[in-house]
Write a structure and sequence with these properties.
- The protein is of the alpha+beta class and 204 residues long.
- The protein is built from 4 helices and 8 strands; from the N terminus they run ααβββββααβββ.
- Strands 1, 2, 3, 4, 5, 6, 7 and 8 form an 8-stranded antiparallel beta sheet that branches.
- A hairpin with a 3-residue loop joins strand 3 and strand 4.
- Helix 3 packs across helix 4.
- The termini are far apart.
- The protein binds a DNA duplex (12 and 12 nucleotides) through strand 3, strand 4 and helix 4.
Length: 204
DNA sequence: AGAGTGATCATG
DNA sequence: ATGATCACTCTC
């Protein structure tokens, strides 16, 4: 029987959590279907001091409230008038930090994911199905309804343990984060992580 | 390189 | 009330 990541997995610093999420299994139960994928790309958002974070400077609004909740909470936000992105909170209590899930390698329910993604245009190739933060939420049917979900206890969305240790450092590529050009001195911080040589990554 | 798209929030 | 912004994706 697959085992979930426990609360203590998330109660660590957000960089450690972002790296440790690589290789774990994202699970979504929706309309009786089980959709799963292996997390292959993440970013860490460091909260109050981080100029790229939604909680920079201690901002606390209805939108980002989930980032302030206990580690292991799902934070889903809506942006650009059409896209959802999903994050996992981490750290110690009251610390508004989170890891953005940027890409997964689809495993179960691929046909359903294609349907969820192909309302407009047909999917070109399977590596494009979940290779971006808004692509994977669309494929997995994740929107603001899922915001605030408790990943340790919630049935409809959670993360299963595939490995107890993080991937070896040699298999994790570290780069600056994507799409945060406004973040001044935080632009170049190495806070994006992805699995080396995995084809399901958000950018070439 | 530029369009699409509308919730969100800081201003006033 | 108003307007600027946006942790993106797709097409040209």
């Amino acid at each position: 029987m697959p085992e979930r990541l426990p609360r203590r997995f998330y109660e660590r610093d957000v960089v450690t959590v972002a790296r440790a999420l690589l290789g774990q299994r994202l699970v979504r139960m929706i309309n009786g279907k089980r959709l799963t994928g292996i997390i292959v790309e993440t970013e860490a958002y460091l909260g109050i001091p981080d100029k790229a974070a939604h909680t920079y400077g201690g901002r606390r609004t209805p939108r980002n409230e989930s980032m302030w909740q206990q580690a292991g909470t799902l934070y889903v936000y809506f942006t650009y008038g059409m896209h959802h992105c999903c994050n996992v909170t981490a750290g110690s209590p009251g610390q508004p930090v989170a890891a953005l899930i940027r890409a997964v390698e689809p495993v179960e329910g691929i046909d359903t994911m294609k349907k969820n993604r192909s309302s407009k245009r047909k999917i070109s190739c399977h590596t494009a199905l979940c290779s971006g933060p808004a692509k994977l939420t669309q494929a997995f049917g994740i929107d603001r309804h899922a915001d605030g979900s408790n990943l340790v206890t919630d049935k409809s969305i959670h993360i299963e343990k595939v490995r107890s240790r993080s991937l070896p450092s040699k298999q994790i590529i570290t780069t600056p984060r994507i799409g945060i050009q406004y973040a001044e001195d935080w632009v170049d911080r190495p806070l994006r992580f992805y699995v080396k040589d995995n084809p399901h990554i958000s950018k070439k």
